[in-house]
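Hi team, as promised in this morning's meeting, here are the two structures we talked about. I've kept the exact order from the run log so nobody has to guess. The first one is mostly here for context; it's the second one we should focus on when we meet again. Sequence first, then the predicted structure tokens.
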Amino acid sequence: MNGNLYEERGEDRRIRKSKKALQEALIRLLSKKSIGEITIKELTDEADVHRGTFYHHYADAMDLKVQTEREIAEQLTEILSSVPQSRLEQGPYPLLVRVLEYLEDNREIAKMLASEHGAPWLMEELCAGISERCLGAQLFGEQLKYGSRFCAAGLREMLVSWIEDGMRMAPGEMARIMERMMGSQSPTAMSR
């Protein structure tokens, strides 16, 4: 997984380049303002493409946002499924590092995920997915339900803080801290 939103899909290179520019422009703008505040002119100026090019690919800014979010969600799903469950039984570190490295490599996407204007639902889905994957081998039934919700909320806050702080801490170091925090969700801790 290379973390590239714009992998080849049988489209002409110029089309991919235009879509990439528009998606990157949207991601940058969403870290600052809501979709309702973003104009097509702002998008096309930021992307350095013509309005006609925009309308050739998208109906409106919301259409661009939906398609961009869908592609990011596909990437996040790929990351979540990239670590075998057998490795997660030994701890969440391998998965946490992959997620953090993706976010570090895609800083504008990370800022958008952390922004109230961007795609907070994607951040929530990501954290829920991490929690369910990591705790699913240890907890069952009600413990898994409540434990994963609790853990997801904590992960979300940690990720947002890390992103807002400029990702100064290395992904490996941040993953260790998160792993320690998630350790309190172990079966022995839950049975006390």
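And here is the second protein, the one for discussion:
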Amino acid sequence: MKIKEVVCALEQFAPLPLQDGFDNAGLQIGLTDAEITGALLCLDVTEAVIDEAIALGCNLIISHHPLLFKGYKSITGKDYIERCIIKAIKNEIAIYASHTNLDNASGGVNFKIAEKIGLKNVQILAPKEDHLLKLVTYVPLTHADNVRNALFIAGCGHIGNYDSCSYNSEGKGTFRAKEGATPFCGTVGELHQEAEVRIETILPSYKKAEVVKVLISVHPYEEPVYDLYPVVNLWMQAGAGVTGYLEKPEAELDFLKRIKRIFNVGCLKHNEPSGRLIQKVALCGGAGAFLLPQAIRSKADVFIIGEMKYHDYFCHEADILIAEIGHYESEQYTNEIIHFVIRDLLANSKIHISKTNTNPIKYL
């Protein structure tokens, strides 16, 4: 099993185009053609984590947080990041990060947090915008099923809990094949009419190149006609944060104590309780304070967040209960997602969860 096969599986689950603009997810160090000796899963890459990988015989580290966020003009070992780069390269260890693309993916970090809390009917809180395209193509009646099914396999036609979604209308296409053409139907030099199906379907914009390649390969015409339109609809299958519901309402303090236990929180911070019952929960792991307005608009009873600024707490007691559980604590179960994604590719003995606690924040 080569490293690139694991990378492919990770990027099918959490495609890199889902990452936020500031991010640097993906392969950061190493060569993907190497055979995997073992994979170490962690939240952060530190020198101690690389030492752990060396001791375990792992030549791949999969982290949530990227080691590299900025460009480096020199690598001299003057800080821990540069020392990690040197040590990883010297020991032929590849480093891959799955960060905000995994945060924004369906089934990603926030879905894992919701699972730990026991939420039902989990949905994206802030769906992605400007990530959808509509594809329209015209296919001879006899080949419509074949082309349509190929498009679905390539990733078209997913809307919420439905797949294979398309709209189809029949009509007549006209064309005249010029000298040098080898038309699928009709005769060179003569105007031809063909019974065709107009197929309309939807796709994520990052799949455009792949889908067009498939369309051209399966379409019977020499020059397939297709149009791609930007769609302003929200993409409900990817985005920041989630909402969900508890099976039974809980008192505020009972709920907070349960969250503290589940995530082993050293110090849970919250605003003034108002006596409400908690049933609808909004949450975002890590630095998701920007979602507070959406959490309030969603009518959630509580917003669970990794970290929040002091001033963000003011004036929301009547709106929502805020529960800040810590950045590290909120994302600590991310390794379980990665393990799930790659478990069918690697023997269990080759997948290791890091035992190094990389949380830089300590509690008295």
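Starting points for discussion:
The radius of gyration is 25 Å.
The CA atoms of residues 21 and 167 lie 33 Å apart.
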